[in-house]
Amino acid sequence: MSRTQVAIIGAGPSGLLLSQLLDSQGIDNIVLERQSREHVIGRIRAGVLEQGTVDLLLEAGVGGRMQHEGLIHDGFSIGFEDRAFRIDLRALTGKAVTVYGQTEITKDLIDARAAAGNPPAFEVGDISLHDFELDRPIVRYFHGGRSHEIACDFIAGCDGYHGISRKSVPSAALRTFERTYPFGWLGILADVPPASHELVYSNHARGFALCSMRSPRRSRYYVQCASDEKLEAWPDERFWDELVSRLPADIARTVVAGPSIEKSIAPLRSFVVEPMQFGKLFLVGDAAHIVPPTGAKGLNLAVSDVRALYRALSAHYRTGRSEGLHRYSEQCLRRVWKAVRFSWWFTSVMHKFSDEPIAHRLQLAELDYLAGSHAALASLAENYVGLPEPRLCPTLMAADHHPALTRRAAKLTPTRRVRRPDRNADRLSHPPIRWETG
């Protein structure tokens, strides 16, 4: 049986970033991923990064390409009733967001782990987690044609909603909160210039639309669609027609259409599981929570979890203090629920939920109020750029803690200290679409 200090399940951005950060502190770790490297890199995900996410990537030493290629956005626009207004994030909060694709972050992290001599193990099968409620967790898996067993101090479950980590916890020990939305997002990626230099969110009687981008030459567009839609029903021409019909005319005129290089439909849901820790197993990112993409919080929440766990593990190995580990779930969930609330609100005001005329009128009234209220704009901007990391409050959420889990978590003990290294309505008429074929 081999041994490591932290076993990380999942080689998405959160697992890879945690590995990179722990390695910088001399904390031994291994990353196990059931999918292939090509599959992991090929996932198309959002890329609106809060400043806290940018800062942690830089701290991990993987922000060089992001600084060079990332697009800094000082604001974004919201369209409704054939007009648009801009939310000036910089003026309202002093902060901005950075557009840099999650795919690129994953590539940067995989390269960094390989350069450090500790690349993830891909195409790992039959992963199972054992004894994580005790002092010596064990991870078993199949890789390279043979079975493996590794003992560790802690397990970080970074393997997403469908992963084995959360499923390994007895269901009676977890509380699950979930809301499924009656629609999805149909998104395409195309090598055409963006309609705007910043993101544009649009509310329309036909449904929601979003104009985004990955670079000055690659655009990402979305339209709200029924949750049971099939991709075959959406040839490129239909998508572009539908997109521009939902945008204010001034923005629709700037849309350059072209062949899609990727097309997919994503369901929308809100999902939270409590607690995010069970003994020495810590759930991170989508393994513990999912939010609708409207508020651009998914990846940023995962990075926030990574930050909390990284700091707690570093303190544990450096000083022997484990308060941060004991309170990991409490700290993360305070931020998670605020992000769930914001994402729910933004989704509810921008999407079509029914054909009732009053529903759309209420949305328009909300957006009209938002456009004319500095206080409302400041609240939206504050949530969009990312709320500050929460301070721990001993009494908050105490009623939600499971006594049995708390007692088990109290068994956490340091194994060995690692020296910290020094380091520096109906179809609307719309303007003609310009097609770009190259």
Describe the protein:
By secondary structure, this protein is an alpha/beta fold. The chain has a domain at 2-72 and 99-179 and 269-351 and 394-409: FAD/NAD(P)-binding domain. The chain has helices spanning 13-24, 37-42, 51-59, 64-69, 89-93, 102-115, 164-167, 236-245, 249-252, 298-319, 323-326, 328-350, 357-372, 374-385, 403-409; strands at 2-3, 6-9, 29-32, 48-49, 71-73, 75-80, 83-88, 97-99, 125-130, 138-143, 146-151, 154-157, 175-190, 200-202, 209-215, 218-226, 256-257, 260-274, 277-278, 281-283, 289-290, 434-435. The chain has an eight-stranded mixed sheet with strand order 7-6-14-15-16-13-18-21, sandwiched between helices. A five-stranded mixed sheet has the order 3-2-12-20-19. The chain has a four-stranded mixed sheet with strand order 1-11-10-9, with no helix packed on it. A hairpin with a 2-residue loop joins strand 10 (138-143) and strand 11. It is globular and about 65 Å long. The model is unreliable at 393-434 (pLDDT under 50).
How would you summarize this macromolecular structure in one to three sentences?
This protein is an alpha/beta fold and 438 residues long.
